[in-house]
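Why should sequence recovery work at all? Because a backbone constrains its sequence more than one might expect. Tight turns favour small or flexible residues, buried strands favour hydrophobic ones, and helices have their own preferences. The token representation captures these environments compactly. In the example below, the structure is given first.
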């Protein structure tokens, strides 16, 4: 099983590295071409659409693997029901995004159009839920390769836009093309390799929604304290500061694929180990934290030291204001990635109801800190607010809420060097056994 997890993660990581490099280059040229103001408008639209994603997914993305583990013979019904529910929700979300922009950005028709065009991606992202079936089957090589090919195709489209100096509206549509390619390709592969026939079940919808509904509000709250900063920056200060902030966010997010791949690959193993015994289950959770925490801290240190050359190399001196923002946000990611891993433990323990308390606290703190710090420190204040929010939500709240304290104990165990050494030894043993085969 561990070998499957490693191979699954390896496929995802290798393809995601190539994808991240391509994305970084295209983002760099796009940001330089559009300039801080127009780039700020595009990233603002992305943040607004991100608010709608939890409502579009209806929390189903957080429970699909669990449902497939519990009833693998019903995979077609589980996936079909989830996709149809999300598709219906996507159209309502697009309408809501346009209405929000007309109200929040009154008189800024360009911003509203960009938001509407960007929101089209929700239709195709809903069908992308089939990706979780590939995770469950440890077949992420398909999703990794398809995602990489989609990035290559869409990157070619963006290069064409840059070369022909197209207007900002064309860039807003690019993400929709990305998800269109991925969703169609994965659905075809799913059918080709023998996935169950997709079908709708009203009873299944009610049962899944009874569990997933906890994730809708909690997911929305997560978005509030992860995306509110850019929205508040645009409304309170302007497009340029939003552009500086987004440039720094792109830098810290460049390694996110690594941690997402690790979490996605370990999730099915942890959920399966929950049925095998407490010791083996908790050991797999600790291993996940080892794989997340140590690399995250290393990345944070590296970005803090190299912030200035990274910004100048990628975006040019026009984005010099992003340097301090990057140094602050570099540490935000360490707590953010741990939070993603922690959610796997919460799901396996059936403690989804506590996500509301965690994320509500985070949302309130983030909005309050942004409101106080943005007028004084600008985008750097927004970065500091995000860092403080992540630390409080993912670490402090874990000690304050008694049913979640055991998870923090597992985290503290993962920070002990002996667990990291033990994991490295196990990895070497698996690698040696594979070489001897």
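From this structural description, the recovered sequence reads:
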């Amino acid at each position: 099983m561990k070998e499957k997890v490693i191979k699954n993660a390896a496929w995802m990581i290798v393809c995601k590295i190539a994808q991240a490099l391509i994305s970084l280059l295209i983002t760099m040229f796009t940001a330089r071409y559009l300039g801080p103001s127009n780039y700020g408008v595009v990233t603002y639209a992305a943040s607004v659409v991100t608010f709608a994603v939890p409502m579009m997914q209806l929390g189903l993305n957080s429970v699909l693997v669990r449902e497939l583990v519990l009833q693998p013979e019903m995979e077609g019904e589980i996936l079909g029901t989830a996709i149809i529910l999300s598709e219906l929700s996507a159209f309502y979300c697009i309408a809501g995004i346009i209405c929000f922009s007309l109200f929040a950005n009154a008189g800024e028709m360009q911003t509203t159009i960009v938001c509407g065009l960007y929101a089209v991606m929700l239709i195709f992202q809903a069908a992308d839920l089939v990706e979780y079936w590939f995770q469950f089957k440890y077949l992420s090589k398909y999703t990794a390769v398809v995602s990489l090919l989609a990035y290559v195709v869409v990157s070619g489209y963006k290069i064409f836009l840059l070369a022909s100096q197209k207007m900002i509206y064309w860039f807003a549509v690019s993400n929709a093309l990305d998800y269109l390619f991925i969703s169609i390709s994965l659905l075809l592969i799913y059918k080709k390799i023998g996935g169950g026939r997709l079908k709708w079940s009203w009873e299944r919808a009610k049962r899944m929604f009874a569990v997933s509904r906890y994730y809708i509000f909690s997911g929305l709250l997560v978005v509030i304290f992860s995306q509110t900063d850019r929205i508040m920056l645009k409304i309170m200060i302007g497009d340029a500061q939003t552009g500086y902030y987004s440039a720094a966010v792109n830098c810290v997010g460049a390694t996110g694929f690594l941690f997402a791949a690790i979490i996605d690959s370990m999730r099915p193993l942890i959920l399966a180990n929950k049925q095998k015994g407490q010791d083996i289950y908790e050991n797999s959770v600790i291993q996940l934290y080892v794989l997340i925490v140590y690399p995250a801290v290393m990345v944070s240190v590296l970005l803090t030291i190299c912030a200035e050359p990274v910004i100048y190399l990628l975006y040019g001196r026009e984005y010099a204001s992003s340097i301090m923002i990057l140094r602050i946000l570099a540490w935000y990611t360490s707590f953010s990635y741990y939070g993603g891993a922690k959610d796997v433990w919460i799901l396996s323990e059936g403690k989804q109801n506590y996500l509301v308390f965690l994320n509500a606290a985070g949302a309130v703190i983030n909005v309050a800190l942004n409101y106080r710090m943005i007028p004084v420190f600008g985008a750097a204040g927004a970065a500091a607010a995000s860092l403080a929010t992540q630390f409080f939500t993912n670490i402090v709240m874990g000690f304050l809420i008694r049913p979640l304290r055991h998870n923090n104990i597992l985290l503290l165990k993962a920070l002990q060097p002996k667990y990291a050494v033990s994991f490295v030894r196990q990895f070497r043993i698996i690698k040696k056994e594979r070489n001897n085969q």
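A few observations help interpret the result. The first helix runs from residue 2 to 57.
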